[in-house]
Design brief:
This protein is α/β, with parallel strands linked by helices. The chain folds into 2 domains: 145 residues, 3-Layer(aba) Sandwich (Rossmann fold), CATH 3.40.50.2000; 163 residues, Rossmann fold (3-Layer(aba) Sandwich), CATH 3.40.50.2000. It contains 15 helices and 10 strands. A 6-stranded parallel sheet has the order 7-6-5-8-9-10, sandwiched between helices. Helix 1 crosses helix 15 and helix 5 runs antiparallel to helix 6. The protein starts with a helix and ends in a 7-residue tail after the last helix. The model has no long low-confidence stretch (mean pLDDT 92).
Length: 331
């Protein structure tokens, strides 16, 4: 994952990637266990999704004496429950049983930190999945160009964005919108765009590498994240990246996004699922250049002052040093 790469780079550590989803649930856990037994490690950081990868790390740590730190990006039981409601209780019990054996962890936001602490994890500190501000630099343009980056799934709310853009077109407003990403709803969303008569205004760029995203952000003035409020722990990295790129961000007012974006100061927040409110805020930004520029500059300042990855990496280094009692050189 992008977060895993950033953590590995910040701590100067080795990244052990998984080649495919099939391996993740078959040979990979055994491969991890054997590698940890053979190697000489002081600290192993493991992602909590999927949760079963924590088990070989904990077993090997008992045999070899290294410390295990879990990187919490979601509650596994919440992810399972959203797909298989009948497994909710069982997954919660299994998750708590494993987490009670975890002494240290990092979490992507405050709400997730509180949740895993309540499940028995010994100590957790928040390390936001922040933007690399040296990479996501601002363009500060005022052209009517809108951008959204998303996995093309229902919970990302891109149908709401299309409905909002239709309202703008009906009012005679001129704009261009690019949507970056791929997913199961791509065909459905393209048909919806065509049915709404937005072929000229909305372009689907498909999947592009993460390295290419900053270039596209610099060409736009407004970033949109119309996420449906389906997860109490969602705080996607794209929020930080759009802020870092100096976009005027219009996002769903979920608890975690609201902890980063202050409405009217460094972005605009609309009620999740309300495409009419989304359209109204987009119209306001397209017609009010003073507001647009103020939000753009404040967005960048938010990242520089609080949410740059360098700041989070420094905090991570301090936490690792406290946990392992060993000096870590920040790269």
């Amino acid at each position: 994952s992008i977060r895993g790469l950033k953590i590995s780079k910040a701590l100067g550590g080795e990244l052990m990637g998984c080649p495919s989803k099939i391996h993740r649930y078959t040979l990979y856990p055994l491969r991890v266990f054997l590698k940890l037994l053979k190697g000489r490690y002081g600290l192993v950081i493991v992602n909590n999704i999927p949760i079963h990868l924590i088990i070989p790390c904990l077993l090997a740590s008992r045999m070899r004496g290294f410390k295990v730190m879990v990187d919490f990006v979601n509650l596994w039981s919440a992810a399972v429950k959203s797909k298989y409601p009948w497994l909710g209780r069982l997954s919660h019990i299994l998750e708590a049983t494993i987490y009670q054996r975890v002494t240290h962890g990092i979490a992507i936001n405050e709400s997730l930190s509180k949740a895993v602490l309540s499940l028995g994890v010994g100590d957790v500190t928040v390390i936001y999945d922040a933007a690399e501000s040296e990479v996501f630099t601002p363009g500060y343009i005022d052209a009517p160009r809108i951008l959204s980056v998303a996995n093309l799934r229902w919970d990302e709310g891109l149908d709401l964005l299309l409905l909002g853009l239709k309202k703008l077109k009906d009012k005679g407003l001129s704009f261009q919108c690019v949507i970056i990403g791929d997913g199961e709803e791509k065909g459905k969303l393209k048909r919806m765009r065509d049915n709404l008569g937005l072929q000229r205004e909305v372009k689907f760029l498909g999947w592009i590498s993460h390295e290419e995203v900053p270039r596209h952000m610099r060409r736009c003035s407004i970033g949109v994240a119309p996420i449906r409020n389906v997860s109490p722990y969602a705080l996607p990295i794209k929020i930080f990246e759009m802020l870092s790129a100096g976009l005027a961000v219009v996002a769903s007012d979920t608890a975690n996004i609201g902890a980063v974006i202050e409405h009217g100061k460094n972005g605009l927040l609309f009620q999740p699922g309300n495409h009419e409110m989304l359209a109204a805020y987009l119209e306001k930004l397209l017609s009010d250049k003073v507001l647009l520029r103020r939000l753009q500059h404040n967005a960048r300042m938010t990242v520089e002052s609080r949410f740059s990855w360098r700041r989070q990496a420094e905090k991570l280094r301090e936490y690792v040093e406290k946990t392992t009692r060993e000096k870590v050189e920040l790269s």
